[in-house]
Write a structure and sequence with these properties.
22% helix, two-stranded antiparallel ribbon, globular, binds calcium ion, GTP Cyclohydrolase I, domain 2, homodecamer
Amino acid sequence: MKPTELTLLGHSENRLPASPDEATLETFPNCRPGRRFWITLDCPEFSSLCPVTGQPDTAHLVIRYVPGERCVETKSLKFYLASFRNLPAFNEEIVNRVLDDLITAMSPLEIVVSGKFSPRGGIQLTAEARYPEA
Amino acid sequence: MKPTELTLLGHSENRLPASPDEATLETFPNCRPGRRFWITLDCPEFSSLCPVTGQPDTAHLVIRYVPGERCVETKSLKFYLASFRNLPAFNEEIVNRVLDDLITAMSPLEIVVSGKFSPRGGIQLTAEARYPEA
Amino acid sequence: MKPTELTLLGHSENRLPASPDEATLETFPNCRPGRRFWITLDCPEFSSLCPVTGQPDTAHLVIRYVPGERCVETKSLKFYLASFRNLPAFNEEIVNRVLDDLITAMSPLEIVVSGKFSPRGGIQLTAEARYPEA
Amino acid sequence: MKPTELTLLGHSENRLPASPDEATLETFPNCRPGRRFWITLDCPEFSSLCPVTGQPDTAHLVIRYVPGERCVETKSLKFYLASFRNLPAFNEEIVNRVLDDLITAMSPLEIVVSGKFSPRGGIQLTAEARYPEA
Amino acid sequence: MKPTELTLLGHSENRLPASPDEATLETFPNCRPGRRFWITLDCPEFSSLCPVTGQPDTAHLVIRYVPGERCVETKSLKFYLASFRNLPAFNEEIVNRVLDDLITAMSPLEIVVSGKFSPRGGIQLTAEARYPEA
Amino acid sequence: MKPTELTLLGHSENRLPASPDEATLETFPNCRPGRRFWITLDCPEFSSLCPVTGQPDTAHLVIRYVPGERCVETKSLKFYLASFRNLPAFNEEIVNRVLDDLITAMSPLEIVVSGKFSPRGGIQLTAEARYPEA
Amino acid sequence: MKPTELTLLGHSENRLPASPDEATLETFPNCRPGRRFWITLDCPEFSSLCPVTGQPDTAHLVIRYVPGERCVETKSLKFYLASFRNLPAFNEEIVNRVLDDLITAMSPLEIVVSGKFSPRGGIQLTAEARYPEA
Amino acid sequence: MKPTELTLLGHSENRLPASPDEATLETFPNCRPGRRFWITLDCPEFSSLCPVTGQPDTAHLVIRYVPGERCVETKSLKFYLASFRNLPAFNEEIVNRVLDDLITAMSPLEIVVSGKFSPRGGIQLTAEARYPEA
Amino acid sequence: MKPTELTLLGHSENRLPASPDEATLETFPNCRPGRRFWITLDCPEFSSLCPVTGQPDTAHLVIRYVPGERCVETKSLKFYLASFRNLPAFNEEIVNRVLDDLITAMSPLEIVVSGKFSPRGGIQLTAEARYPEA
Amino acid sequence: MKPTELTLLGHSENRLPASPDEATLETFPNCRPGRRFWITLDCPEFSSLCPVTGQPDTAHLVIRYVPGERCVETKSLKFYLASFRNLPAFNEEIVNRVLDDLITAMSPLEIVVSGKFSPRGGIQLTAEARYPEA
Ligand SMILES: [Ca+2]
Ligand SMILES: [Ca+2]
Ligand SMILES: [Ca+2]
Ligand SMILES: [Ca+2]
Ligand SMILES: [Ca+2]
Ligand SMILES: [Ca+2]
Ligand SMILES: [Ca+2]
Ligand SMILES: [Ca+2]
Ligand SMILES: [Ca+2]
Ligand SMILES: [Ca+2]
Ligand SMILES: [Ca+2]
Ligand SMILES: [Ca+2]
Ligand SMILES: [Ca+2]
Ligand SMILES: [Ca+2]
Ligand SMILES: [Ca+2]
Ligand SMILES: [Ca+2]
């Protein structure tokens, strides 16, 4: 299978950040900075690598937040999440890191991140972290 | 495809407001102004334009409110929502504007507006705003 | 289609009250008047007429209540709800009237009435009223 | 409840045919008379009267057909179906009559009518008839 | 609401074809021209205008085909479908035209197009056409 | 995030084939070679790269086959499917290649491969190929 | 619990046939004896006794038939099915007997009876019989 | 149908208590008497007789409780519930009596009993009672 | 945890066959040997051991058959299926062996056995075998 | 069935602990010990033996906890849960023991364990325990 000819159609988007450290979470001004409202971002296609076996893990991530002065731009979020693709990382670390990185990027008033990972060995793990703590 | 003959059947309803600014949210008296009760309006066919790409966005809007002295008339609401059809607008702005316009039109005691937008790039965004804030 | 022969089989139940004013909500003694418990009546077949177009509206009504000294008899409730069949009435009025009539008939300690009306013009309306107010 | 004032808003649509005999199924030319294709009309709000008890029956009707030279106009279909509202009729007769009336009105190449009636006494009846017979 | 500043972010994609006549269905070579296999394109966000009332209609379109020498490119299909957005067109015509246009564009060995339109007046219409006829 | 210490726990499984060309589909003898029976392998976690944008695609693959003399070993299938992870490939090519590779590996009597890819731009593509052709 | 006072409200329906032998399946003339159409009767509340343990069994029965000259009357069917209530009978016998009794009562052109029994010991049994055999 | 031969297989369980008064709710010691935990018993096969018509009623009962010193034994609960089978009883009485009998039998710290009865005349009744009252 | 006192309640059923070779599939005479009808046995609680890892596998087995002269007795089937509990066996072998053993035990006219095994490593396997072959 | 040859493929994992007393719940350091977040472990394949009949019981266990200094390692949890496989144990004891053992192993800040057991005799039992008590 030689899809090289077709990749010539590829454009400038054609760069996957190698890790979350190399990705950038862009933001834009909140349209109603004085109103406390919720934004939910449903991301069913998350994937990373298991740090023990090196095999792919997949997860359904859900991010819910009350914006402060800024909102996260969804296209940069897509690139950021894609940057975990070849990173070995434990389930719990992923959820906590996404929470930390989003807090750093946009200083939300409130935020919850959950990750529902695909079952392994008959057990399915979900982790959920929030800021500020309940 | 020439549906001109058939549009002769069209009647006076045949005008889509060009934008929310040109639309009118009509109201009628609340039948039980002294009782605090909830009305939910489920609007699964909302559509607008993405301000970045110019392509259509679609959403499922849900409006819940406790009427004050007046209720919104659903046919005028249908025209009002249709007026976003060719408007470039961000998801968050749409939800907040519908909330603001309904507050202006009918002074509800309480109101919640949510918009669940169709996924783009593997991410699905929902925004929810309310008045007064919780 | 002449079903006259078959209606000869009809018996004394064969009278539909012409309006809620002509219907009677019968009650019977609560079997545990000293205990605060909930009864839910799920009525998915409600129908009335739209007061603007004269066309049928249909709704799924749900009645939840904590009985006081008496409970509503479900067969009389069926006749009562059927009496709205040819009545032009707004969605919000129906829900509030059913609430009022049930309060009058049986003096419940608590009661909630909701009506989920079929969509019209792409918008689906649900109204919910309760006594006493929350 | 005196909705008389509000019905003043009613317009010319405000006439419900008293029976199917008084209703008209209007048709319009099939846009592709040379192509054999299917149209499905899903009608979840049908209601009639039980010829034995005089009480309302409700049903979910589904009409599927391959048009010949003409298609049924859906607004006239809505009025036609509403005309059964106060007609005492057995479930089986309703489904067969709707089939017969649609055949007469538009001479479809093929047509199936099913009616799923709400349960009575713990038994739920569905009838389905087609033309031509399989 | 003045999103003008943000639309500066818009790029060259920012042109919605005014009608299907102005849209182009691009194709690319079938990767297995000698194998008879099925491709399904699920398009839940279709919208057009009702030719009678001028109001928006929405539909869920599904396209299934066995490619011949060429496949339809999904981004051009997205633009093509978006071009119906401001076109007054009957439900049956839309389904048949999409079928005809896809046959013209890529000469599939077999193709089925269905459109499930949102309910109007309590009736929901679905149309399905195929080539070659069964 | 420095998971290096934890990856020390990793064992010999810790090698993801760089592409399908480097992966091996292992097989084992069919336990009932004389009986025509079906095996279904449901693989909801497939991922590859879009050859146009370089971004991840995800899909739900389903493989159904009637084994001949040999069956595919599911752990090797897992590694084989994981080898598409960083490969730019069109949806249609993936489904056809998986079909071809499984035919080569185990000579099934009959086999069907389908891939349901996550939506992009409001359109969701599914491809399905089989051997021998119907 | 002494509901004797309330049973005074009971009327002539107050007799449950002691067994299917004592019940009568009444019929009425088929409204379209010349058309081959299907009637489905969905009976989710069936109950009998296990002949081994004497404990209640419950089942969801579905009866589908093409009427000949006569249809089964659903109220008599309700009484007939209720007559199995205190009868010890094996699952397979029930389904076959209901089939036989309906054939005897109304001579349908075609009929299928299925019974989905509630699980016992982790196994759930469904039996389905038809006439004439496929 | 003469299942007498097969009932010879029946054993000592072959006695259905004639009424709840004749049934016994057996209990066994709570394994963690010092911990406040919940047990839910889902009983979808309940049946009794309507005191007005003498016809069978069916219901889905759910019992939730926090055990005190003792738990109810589920096999004796099965026999107890089966003892309502030929008892004429109103829906509300059944739910309240089951609650009362379980309180008497095992003195739970907290208990909720709900019964969802099958629809009659288009209305479906659910009753729910608890101890101690909320 | 010392459940010894409670096991004193255990009776003669307290023996799990150590393997399918030690289990017996009992049968009883078919009540309608001259009629071709289907019996479905849904067994969602099957468990065995993985022959590679020694860990438990679980599966949902479904058995469908047309009885000949005899039917399988469901309690003996429960014991037979439980006898796989500590047997190392491949998924495909289990389904084929259950098919073979049931053919031997009752000589059905037709039989289908399917087993849907719980996912392992992100892949879920289902096997289905039938007699006679289609 | 002689799977002996294939078990030669088995490796060191091939030991199922004979009881929970012989199993070990391994833990690893919590990656965010200062943050209060939830981990959910969904375990649908649990099985044990009924202490009364000796027959298998199956259950869907769900474990939710807020980690303290350590998290439970899911592979050791899988082995621990599998160790109940041949243990006679009451439903309520299982849920309480899993709770106790997890508290001992990792000292969580908060933990909830529920077990939904498969129905027996028409009754389905669920038990749920938590620490600290609500
Ligand atoms: Ca955004
Ligand atoms: Ca008032
Ligand atoms: Ca309104
Ligand atoms: Ca009542
Ligand atoms: Ca034509
Ligand atoms: Ca039409
Ligand atoms: Ca080819
Ligand atoms: Ca394509
Ligand atoms: Ca295998
Ligand atoms: Ca006839
Ligand atoms: Ca009938
Ligand atoms: Ca118990
Ligand atoms: Ca026979
Ligand atoms: Ca049997
Ligand atoms: Ca920390
Ligand atoms: Ca873990």
